[in-house]
Amino acid sequence: MSAFLHVTRGQHPLMSDTYDLIVIGGGTGGYPAAIRAGQLGMKAVCINAWLNRDNKPAYGGTCLNAGCIPSKALLESSEMFHRAGHELATHGVKVNAPTLDLVAMQARKSKITSSLTGGIGALFKANGVTGLEGTARLMGKGKVEYTSHSGEKKVLEGKHIIVATGSEPVELKIAPFDHKQICDSWDALDFTEVPGRLGIIGAGVIGVELGSVWARLGSKVTILEALPTFLPMVDQTIAKDAQRQFTKQGLDIRLGAKVISAKSNGKEAVVEYESEGAKKSETFDKLIVAVGRRPYTKGLNAEGVGLELDPRGFVKVDKNYKTNLAGVYATGDVIGGLMLAHKAIEEGVALVEQLHGEKTEVNYNAVPSVIYTTPEVAWVGLTEEQAKAAGHEVKIGASPFAANGRAKALEAATGSVKVISDAKTDRILGVHMIGPYVSEILQSVVVALEFGATTADLQLTMHGHPTLAEALHEAYLAVDGRAIHAINKKKVS
After folding, report:
1. Kind plus residue range of the DSSP H or E element containing 400
2. 340 is in an annotated binding site
3. Other CB atoms within 10 A of residue 112 CB
4. pLDDT tens digits for 377-430?
5. How far from chain centre, in Å, is Cα 196?
6. Which residues does the entry assign to the active site, renumbered to this chain (predicted)?
7. Which of 98, 101, 137, 317 could cross-link with 84 by S-S, CB 3.0 to 4.6 Å?
8. Is position 166 annotated in a ligand binding site?
């Protein structure tokens, strides 16, 4: 078999140049779309360009290889380390002071990641999808030039083409990556030593998650955020509580701190920033730049074929993900909006079903968001501030985890649930929460929003006892001053 025809993990070899669907991108915006196409009887190929740091190809894109999955593995491991040193004694479990084996922790993370990425090839085989490792270049008129990692080229033709090339970390001109002292989020998941002094530019989801990991393992963490507000996308009652709790845990969160420059001297990163009208300086062993992500379209030949991009480089699409080129569509991070793996998955699947003649759409008013710190922060729908700005008269209900029996048993009775409802229609507009495992509790709210549930509907829904979800039920009851295990403070505004 030639090098060009070599495929891995049981995937189908390239048997034809012509496909019903060509998916460019093997991340969460791409591979699920290809799988769904295979399920619907479409002849699909997925071209995956991702190479890991060991130069080996892997499906799953940023999420499985350098984002969602490895970060959650490290968050869980670092939390176990923290509990062993600070919490087990409270439960009556006496242990010696724990010691950190970072090599084993990183190995566990890598094993979890590889097990998931390796399974995608099997899913392709089961659904009749062809998987190709290499890059793709748009040629126009339904044609794509595929180049294998070994350099072989071939032209593929597709009735439909989906661009799902994802995103990459934003690099600041004032803080260029050297991937040693000044790092991106992927670098920060692969540290071989715990930095004594860790700086992070950006107090968003990525910044606080990575800060939490390394602070638990012993780093002194300083987060510099240019905005004056912490987590502005979260309801501010919840966001302020989160800031208090993260600060108690040792994260030094400095709001209104605008970085002027960051330079590496080969051993340390020196950061100059402005705060409260004064110029200041900090020196770190490692600096993580976590100021967001930008669309990845390198090598796509967008300009060459006239694919329209917006001023920030995102591929422009209509409500059905169609670009300005006939037969070319785009989904996921590369089209902007919330850069979340689950959003990308749903967009790709919805698009494929539309191409198959079905009427499917994504409800962007019910996209869940989570920060996997301890406690977790999770939300869906409008904040109180957004609801009022949109003209809603709102009524608010809240319930603290301090009154929740399961949270107390977990030694995690911190945080609260906040429900925002429309005072006139009684519809749930949004739910924001901070507390133990709220990422799991949130999913019932997503279902409620999908079905247009009212507050009364959910007040009448029985929740198991004792469960963390009872805090959510109490918050629903509190909207109308009916909470049983908390003092009611009914608020309509």
Report:
1. strand 394-400
2. yes
3. 17
4. 999 999 999 999 999 999 999 999 999 999 999 999 999 999 999 999 999 999
5. 27
6. 465 (proton acceptor)
7. 98
8. yes
